[in-house]
Amino acid sequence: MRIIIWNCNMAFRRKAKQILTLKPNIIIVPECESLEKLKFTDETLLPKDKFWFGEKANKGLGVFTYGNYSISKNINHNKEYRFVVPLLIENEIDKFNLIAVWAQKPDTHNNYGIQVWNAINYYSDLLKEEKLINAGDFNSNSIWDKPNREANHSNIVKLLNEKEILSTYHYYSKEEQGKETKPTLFLQKNLIENITLTTALHRKQ
Fold first, then answer.
1. pLDDT digits 0-9 by tens, 83-122
2. Distance (Å, rounded) from C-alpha 198 to C-alpha 135?
3. pLDDT per residue over 135-180, tens digit each?
4. Class of 3-203 per CATH?
5. For the chain, which residues make up each domain, given as ranges?
6. pTM higher than 0.85 for the full model?
7. What span, in angstroms and rounded, lies between the C-alpha atoms of 10 and 47?
8. N- or C-end of the chain: fewer Cβ atoms within 10 A?
9. Cβ pair 200, 3 in contact under 8 A
10. CA–CA separation, 151 and 169 (whole Å)
């Protein structure tokens, strides 16, 4: 199975063709337009199933499957945590839980991690499931930690690790949180300024 997380910076309908050359089974797409606006070109392979959650039609969280996977929303989804959405992905032989993430800054302060932190605690029972992937744009890195802030990136990583959920990127690349040498993002499209953001987490085996 190939899962891709890609913050498309809006207008996914015009960019989907490029990412589909990687032949994904599932794509998690932060900053994706609503399904009503999502009109693919004739040359673009259409997804088997699709899901979108958002507050503005041109910028939300999209999830798309290709092949024979279907998507359904977990009945325990709490909209208070906005863009942290529990989903069930399944086909005729397998199913697993996916918590799709696009971390948002609250209206009252600038901590992008607070929604993820609160959601991790709220969905604690779901995080015990054996087949679980937590994936998306976390908008955080340990280099931005504030020492007196409970919901900083390092504490989020620590809490997930205690639940035996590991960062897939850091696990396979042998990188250390906050000391990454291989970037996954060009900050504000600047080829000079780059950074690594946590994008996918998996159950420890």
1. 999 999 999 999 999 999 999 888 777 788 899 999 999 9
2. 8
3. 999 988 898 898 888 999 999 999 999 999 999 888 888 888 888 8
4. alpha beta
5. 3-203
6. yes
7. 18
8. C
9. yes
10. 21
